């Protein structure tokens, strides 16, 4: 009988790893501590629950590294992407999903798979025998984090991840706000109007900045330090970096025209993105926060159009744990000190739903191949998958290692392509064309070997 694969953590990475291994014919035991052991951020016991946002970001597979990663996961018959496509919501050029039905669907598919069993209990040790993938994500339990530290000898690093608030759509004043995707992106009218926009004048913006700077913030526990990941900074931390920072970040007013006042360009714009299929909930884009709840309601109601806003969920902050992977993991994502264990997902130092699921996809395939007596060839670094796994397994500088989103800066350079901003469109198309060819070849090589 084939040796089972144990996967700890039922988030994006663990769910995808379980699916890939089971599809390869490997029996899987998926260990998930929720709902018996709760976390600060999760609300349900469903697998692949989306906590921070409902967006998988850009779906452009020709000009965007995240969109390319979507393409590669679809080509590999990924569970997360196929389920996301079924529960897609209008979001301009992005892939956003109806988060609760999405998680319920992932859970149902895994539980229905004949080779997958789900065990609801907390795993607190790194086993010395058996084949394991640990995909416990940013909210790794304290007991397991201690066990990881004991085995690695270096300890896990920690930073803080912040959650954006969600607003009831009916409480948004549409006589002030309007619907439009930036630059009218999208092939349908629904896509081109996927966002709600709230405009600000310069005096309103300045008052808003002052209020955020003065608001009560969540305090850290003794011994904790705030080492934020730049891709998910609390909005007030961005504000502290300079009063104009938000106008060049989540509140940039470009690509938008206010139909209520088309002659006057807003000084800043707050965008809200649909958070469920019914269109009853919207999250405030880029507004992760560590302000205390009372301060949040006061400050966010200063936004024109949100003066009477009701919040389905306020923002929050939680600890995020990740490994110094370049020193700890090999190219097959195995823990060097204990090779029967692989790590996957955000705990490896990738950032984002898509990147986490992608590392789960690779870990699941690698573990399955190993159990079947073969080892997968290295993933081409020219692909989005390969660029990420190379980065975390030795491509990054260990001394300054920080969580990383997929981006074209991780890809080997192209020869004979113009550099700079003017050559960017052709260069990005060159990256994605090369990646698709190499990823297809890598997948076909595995199919030929198992035929």
From TrEMBL:
Cofactor names: FAD
Keyword ATP-binding on entry: no
Enzyme Commission numbers on file: 2.1.1.74
Binding site for FAD: 9-14
Record's keyword terms, sorted: Cytoplasm, FAD, Flavoprotein, Methyltransferase, NAD, NADP, Transferase, tRNA processing
Molecular functions per Gene Ontology: flavin adenine dinucleotide binding; tRNA (uracil(54)-C5)-methyltransferase activity, 5,10-methylenetetrahydrofolate-dependent
Signal peptide: none
InterPro entries xrefs: FAD/NAD-bd_sf (IPR036188), MnmG-rel (IPR002218), MnmG-rel_CS (IPR020595), MnmG_N (IPR040131), TrmFO (IPR004417)
Name under which the protein is recorded: Methylenetetrahydrofolate--tRNA-(uracil-5-)-methyltransferase TrmFO
Species of origin: Limimaricola pyoseonensis
Lineage: Bacteria, Pseudomonadati, Pseudomonadota, Alphaproteobacteria, Rhodobacterales
Gene that produces this protein: trmFO
């Amino acid at each position: 009988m084939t040796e089972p694969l144990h996967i700890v953590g039922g988030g994006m990475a663990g769910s995808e790893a379980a699916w890939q291994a089971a599809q390869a014919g490997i029996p899987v035991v998926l260990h998930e501590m929720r709902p018996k052991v709760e976390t600060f951020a999760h609300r349900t016991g469903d697998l692949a629950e989306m906590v921070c946002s409902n967006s998988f970001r850009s779906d452009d597979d020709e000009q965007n590294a995240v969109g390319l990663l979507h393409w590669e996961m679809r080509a590999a018959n990924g569970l997360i992407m196929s389920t996301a496509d079924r529960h897609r919501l209008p979001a301009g050029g992005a892939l956003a999903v109806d988060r609760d039905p999405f998680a319920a669907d992932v859970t149902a598919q895994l539980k229905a798979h004949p080779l997958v069993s789900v065990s609801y209990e907390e795993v607190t040790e790194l086993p010395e025998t058996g084949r394991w993938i640990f995909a416990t994500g940013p909210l790794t339990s304290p007991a397991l984090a201690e066990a990881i530290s004991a085995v690695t000898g270096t300890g896990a690093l920690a930073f803080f991840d912040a959650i954006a608030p969600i607003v009831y759509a009916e409480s948004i004043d549409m006589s002030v706000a309007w619907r439009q995707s930036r630059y009218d992106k999208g092939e349908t009218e629904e896509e081109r109007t996927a966002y709600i926009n709230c405009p600000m004048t310069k005096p309103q913006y300045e008052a808003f900045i002052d209020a955020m700077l003065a608001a009560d913030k969540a305090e850290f526990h003794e011994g904790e330090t705030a080492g934020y990941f730049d891709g998910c900074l609390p909005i007030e931390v961005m504000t502290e970096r300079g009063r104009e920072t938000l106008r060049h970040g989540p509140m940039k007013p470009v690509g938008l025209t206010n139909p209520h006042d088309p002659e006057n360009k807003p000084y800043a714009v707050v965008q809200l993105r649909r958070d469920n299929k019914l269109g009853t909930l919207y999250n405030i884009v880029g507004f992760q926060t560590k302000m205390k709840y009372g301060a949040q309601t006061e400050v966010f109601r200063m936004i024109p159009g949100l003066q009477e806003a009701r919040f389905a969920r306020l923002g929050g902050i939680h600890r995020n744990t990740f490994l110094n992977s370049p020193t700890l993991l090999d190219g097959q994502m195995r823990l060097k000190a204990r090779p029967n264990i692989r790590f996957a997902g955000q705990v490896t130092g990738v950032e984002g739903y898509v990147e986490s699921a992608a590392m789960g996809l690779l870990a699941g395939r690698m573990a399955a191949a190993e159990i079947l007596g073969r080892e997968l060839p290295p993933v081409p670094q020219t692909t989005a998958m390969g660029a990420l796994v190379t980065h975390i397994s030795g491509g990054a500088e260990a001394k300054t290692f920080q969580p990383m989103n997929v981006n074209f800066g991780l890809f080997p350079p192209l020869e004979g392509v113009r550099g700079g901003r003017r050559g960017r469109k052709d260069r990005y198309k060159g990256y994605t064309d090369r990646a698709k060819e190499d990823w297809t070849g890598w997948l076909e090589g595995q199919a030929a070997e198992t035929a």
